[in-house]
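Dear support,

We are seeing what looks like truncated structure output for some complexes. This example has two components. We would appreciate it if you could run it in full and send us the complete token output so we can diff it against ours.
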Amino acid sequence: MKFIQFGIGPLGQNLVRRAAQREGLELVGVVDPDPDKFGRPVTDLVPEAQGHTPIVAGLTELGTEHHARVAVISTVSSLERLLPQVQTAAQAGLHIVSTCEELSYPWQTAPDLARLIHEVCTKHEVACVGTGVNPGFLMDYLPAVLSGVCHEVHQVTVERIQDASMRRVPFQQKIGAGLTVDAFEAKRREGRLRHVGLRESVDHLAAALNWGLDEVKETLAPVIAEHVVTSGYTRIEPGMAAGVEQVALGFRENQPVIKLRFRAAVGEAESFDAIQIRGVPDFRSVIPGGINGDIATCAVVLNAMYRIVQAQPGLTTMIDLPAVICNTATTEHVANG
Amino acid sequence: MKFIQFGIGPLGQNLVRRAAQREGLELVGVVDPDPDKFGRPVTDLVPEAQGHTPIVAGLTELGTEHHARVAVISTVSSLERLLPQVQTAAQAGLHIVSTCEELSYPWQTAPDLARLIHEVCTKHEVACVGTGVNPGFLMDYLPAVLSGVCHEVHQVTVERIQDASMRRVPFQQKIGAGLTVDAFEAKRREGRLRHVGLRESVDHLAAALNWGLDEVKETLAPVIAEHVVTSGYTRIEPGMAAGVEQVALGFRENQPVIKLRFRAAVGEAESFDAIQIRGVPDFRSVIPGGINGDIATCAVVLNAMYRIVQAQPGLTTMIDLPAVICNTATTEHVANG
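Here is the complete output from our reference environment:
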């Protein structure tokens, strides 16, 4: 399966590196408008990449002989900024898998943009999905899948709780670890702390469960260090922010029927991903330690490539695709057992 | 959605009872060849059922005015015995959801029968799936879904461990609880103890992961009571069978890459469903307490009805359907919170 990578920042580089380890995936082009990057071979940034694909500033520079079927777009979180990139890829006849968080389920938050994307993809007979581990899997798709064993679902609570000590420094910075409460608040007001996609996960899950929501409420607050924390990239004094806690609630008839809680902090006691379904039956599913977001987002995107080429044209969602599965061999022989 | 129920034994009765609680599902016929049942209104067996649908011995007796779209078949575990029922339903233009364990993934164990079913369904433009909680969900579909966050999968281990104390008496009898070891062994030799579908789950999961298996090995042994067990329907003395443990292993290059372990015993210390994926990343997902099989099998079947009517004609599998979700309201108003 030949693909073109749009965006060769940290996530794009990871995607290219992981794709190179898989049999059956072939990178045939890299598009990135950053003038520091274009013209260079992709192997400058990702030594493991196959061939010497040069980075180009636009898709047209690749010509038409690349025979790619899929565009992997990991550029922006904003759907509005993504739109022209989707249009370009769709017009070139490429199916699209993107990490754009707002693309995972835009039908409530940006219905006009969603419709534009759906139309351009339908017109050019390509399918498009926004995915990743969160949004796209753990807090929306997986709870919907688990509801399959239920006769009734009354409430779904999803928690993604992470000790960020071992995560990349930019991630620790992004969640505000080591900021004073005032600095955290200032950064929050600028919208630079927010995990993008929580709202989309609420809408995605509600649509899957066929629930019309009356209201969605979101909160975001610092996780305050209670003692000195030294497990992260910087020393955190008591009273400073160690990370962020973000909650989104979806309401029906004044009851919070969907509760999503994302908490990432340096020094957090326990990491886990948990889904609680109140209904018939009533159960909790837990992944102790949680799923590493950097690894899993790449995996979901690469695995989704096999499903997107089979999908109906238009803007689709993880819930309407058949199961996205790790079904490709890696090139290294890995000992089993 | 109008449907016809084939088979009105305990499972069929449960399906009809649960369907009656859902908005949008309407029972329009019941087929069962048992002379003790036919001619009677279904409400004799299931007081909650809608209307006074009579039980008939064959589909032709229902005429053609029923406007059903789906046949729910809960009659037999054997694919060979299921075949004529599938043919009848397909010829009548009904999509099929069946609890027949051997139908969940018959392509390795019974490829000729699978092909016959695929052909008759394709010819009559209906889709057919075999499903339930196990096989169909917990030990095959769900681990495949969870692999979606992985770059590499080296080994999958699924455990379904159940304390059978609270299950129906026929279930406790089926797993051999209270038998002497000799009686257990005699019943095992007759094939009457076996949980049907473990082999199909191995094949289903292997196909999803795109793994060709060299060999599948199955074992079945009694769980021996170590002390007196009084939590079940009968007193179990030390040294007697309290239940059954069944293991199926799928091998590649002499390594057991799929390990499924089903253990159900009266007095079992802890019930749980667990999936362990060895790979990149490496993680374990656990449902403490486990999923109640009686409840969940009905739920999966009813939820699958919404997907089967959208599917491509032919014999399909849970892994090739879009996610089967609990997306119908129940008729009772249920308090949220």
